[in-house]
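TL;DR need structure tokens for one chain.
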Amino acid sequence: MTTQAGPRTHLALVLLLIYALVVYAAMNLRFVGNWSENDTAVITRAIVSSGQADSIRNAEFPYSNGAGYIAIVMVLAEITGFSVQTLQLYIMPTIAALNVLVLFVGYRAVLRLPLVAMLAALFAYLQADFLWVTWRGSHEKITWMLVIGLVFLLARTFIMWNQTRIMARYTVLFYIVAFALISSNAFFASSFIVAIILSFVGGSVFFRLRQIAQREQAQPLMQHFGRLIYINVACIVLFYIFVFHLYPESISTLRGLRVLADQLALLFLNVEEQTVQTTTAATLSAPVNYLRVSWLSTNVFLSVTIFSWLLLGFSALVWLVGLVNFLRRRVLAQHNLPLLFLWLLYPAFAAQVGGALIADRVAVFGANLQVRLFTPVMLMAIPLSALGVYFIIRYIHRFARPVRLVLFGLASLAVFWFSIAALFKSTNEPLLNNFWVFNVTPEQAAGDWAVQHLADTLVWTGSQERVATGLQLRYVDVPNDEVSFHAYSFRAGTRYFLFSDLEMAMRRRAAMSLPSFIDEQIVYDNGNTQIYYRRPVTPYER
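>> reply
TL;DR here they are.
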């Protein structure tokens, strides 16, 4: 097998890069830039407050999980002169298209087949969750680029083991990228470190099984995977330095792990059973409620996410077949080690999703840990699936030409639908989904009025975060003690309520109850959106 890319591969890479740019542009144009969600608003506020304080650590609203992405956007804002909002909503999603190049190079290093690596990069941009996390104004467009970069560097060290000078370069680069990942997001960096630890354990078991089955002396090859334990120690040291000395704000990640341990003890040791069961029941019902409330039907949800489920199922099958092949292979050459490393990383990340199911049952990390860890599993499942498709295509070439044409035609139609479905899912398409991520001009006009005429007050904006986060992003430089927009349930002390026709339509379609403002005073009305004021009922209320 060769790792050299030919002219056709270069052309395909350019076309795929153009496709990624078009996809992100289409996602932006779908809402004409009037979109937002919680992470985008939170990170944008952290960037702006860091700029106002001329310090990332001393900002009024520091981002607790890392500072790398914030520093990058601040530098770009200083160099280009663009506002942080413009960078977050338009520029950074465009830059995220460069992930195509990183994915191709990283997958080629482990698969050693350029065309299969290209197919894997395409699969990533047909996967809705990857599109979503790299489109929104989050650190993940940088984080996953760094993760794939680390996989590439580790794969190259397996091949360049005997070339000391090149090996030293890759090693230095690895720790630089590892520190960049830690500074970007301490949580996902800890997830990667755990995956490397589990890969080392899995590699030890694998080589032991080969020795038992074939009495093979696998000690030289095992030494390559033995390096993983030293890599882990070094990464843990870097993690400690960043969390406890360079950016203590990210220590909240460790506090979350401590809470998880305490909650698991309560859950499995049957202590305070009533409290744990209540939390568990509420969390377990969340997926059902999500499908019932957010999507028009379960069939719609399955139709726009079918590619993800096919990837997971097919990659598991490819992994199982490949594992048997690795165990039965008489000779395991050094050039097979990068692929074996991928085979060990896949279950390592999958095991973390299994642990996340337990963590979400006890409502740790916001009860969405399994969603957050879904992307790294998919990034490992994608090259496995691409490799399986490659062997299927080779087998199909044995068929008669008419049969091949029919099969490839059906595959083309499937890819076309997967690309459309990915856009539907990643943008929470309003025609199919009730959890919207956009706001409209009348709602923004009502927000303008609130910022100009109200002071030191809370404004409720609806049952979803779409209006609140959109207005927070729009007025990110407004002092927090002036007007604060919030969503979901009413907070104590809330006197103003922003409600629009769009919010009413969303609640009716989702079969949600409508709030009653019959006793409240209308203080603003533009025909589409109203702001209500709740009169004080005691002399002590404002």
